[in-house]
Amino acid sequence: MQIFSRRNFLQRSVAATLIGGAASALLGGRLAGAVETYPEASPLGIADDLINPSEIRSQSGRLKAKLHMDITEVNLPSGPAKLRIFNGRLPAPTLRLMPGDTLEVAFENRMPANSDTDQMVTNTPNRFNTTNVHYHGFHVSPRGNSDNVYLNIDPGQRFNYVVKIPHDHPAGNYWYHPHRHGSVAAQVASGAAGMAIIGGTLDTVPEIAAMVERVMVIQAPVPGLEDLLTSEEPIWALDAERNFLINGSYRPRIYMREGEVQHWRVLHAGDAQFLPLTADGLELYEVGRDGNPLPKPDLVTNVDLAPGNRANILVKAPKVGTYELRRPAFSQGKQPLPDMMLAEIVVIAADDARVAKHIPFGRDLPTGRLPKNRILTDIADSEITGHRQFVLGISDVKGFFHDTEFTINGQPFDPRRDDVVTKVGAVEEWTLVNTTPYPHPLHIHVNPFQVIDVNGVPDPRKPWLDTVAVPAAGTLRFRTRFTDFSGRYVMHCHILPHEDTGMMININIED
Ligand SMILES: [Cu+2]
Questions:
Q1: Statement: residue 309 has pLDDT above 60
Q2: Model confidence, pTM
Q3: Predicted confidence (pLDDT) per residue in 447-483, tens digit
Q4: 237 C-alpha to center of ligand 1: Å?
Q5: Ligand 1 midpoint to CA 404 (Å)
Q6: Which residues place a Cβ less than 5 A from the ion ligand 1?
Q7: Which domains occur in the chain, in start order?
């Protein structure tokens, strides 16, 4: 059972849910490939140390998970709130898979009927109790019962997802969240999200394998004006102050031992605000982005995360003392957001008796180049089969939410229109031009891309990503290979209120 501290007070509020969850875990345990484990202790085994989310691991090539979405009462730092979340948990369970596995999700929408069942207007937030599940970053089929974001799963409906993960799938950190156009922002801003980890690559680096690993899901759930979100109004303001939670805890305590290097898998599961991270006095080495290894450990002052980004960070604690994980002051193009404490980091003596002898104690950073995800090789000029340009914009349209439409190439999203038609095997270079005064984090489904340059300046890390911030009034170029999967899917802004109000296109890949 979890032990609650002053700093983990939020976890206490979900204690009842935790007991309910444990019961379903036992039930799940009888099914092949469905074992949900609830960590009884933190990675270091210290009572008030941050606990990892619960986890469901694949067995013998299958991961069977039961997910439901319902409206659950949760005690937020701002007070009680009713949140649309998976399995009553904040965050949802981590799904831990291997390349070649099949993910089977028995999903059930347990939310009550929508109150707005009249004719809906595309690109206006609507039907907050209709949903679906997107497997963010997965290179899988976008069709049928796989990563199909065109599904509407209405209240009371069930749906069985079967997501076949290729044998050569890049290892790394992914996540899942609802993606039904019109209710994406409200549901993700509620906290409906969980990590999905595909094993391999970085995990095989001996120094990293020897480290304590933390899964850290960062969310900033928004209570509605009357406890439950019934409008996107409360999430529309990008400069509104938010209370960030890590694994459901507000300002948790994280322990490290002097000289230790820990491997943090960080997911920014927020809906709208960017999140730079910093920790004075500690060393932060970024080794992976959106699941994909960087060329070598990169010592950074800030790890800049857009909503949807994941980072693998090796955190080194040189000296005993108390430190803080902070969001430094920054601006997202409107009012500046202030510096904010996110977690307390307590570095204890290397031989502190509170940590059992069997707990891993990594001390060394990897040296030399990091291994690559095999299929994500650099895209050469000679491979390119086509170029396209996409202009991100805003237009004033009366009658839409906030009288605003977010557009790509001058048009708001139309579910019936194919904006890109290409073929499996095509390799393209896309230029994104942002005409607005704030950055937009663009996310493309199914196939990741390699960033070439930002505002014309080459990115020396040439990172493979699935979500990237296109700078305010700036440009970004990336290259992508449309491999393996035909079908229809989307590219959109991961400031989710922008997606719901039109900043999304359809991509149709033909065989
Ligand atoms: Cu945007």
A1: yes
A2: 0.92
A3: 999 999 999 999 998 999 999 999 999 999 999 999 9
A4: 12
A5: 12
A6: 440, 493, 495, 498
A7: 6-209 (2.60.40.420), 231-348 (2.60.40.420), 381-510 (2.60.40.420)
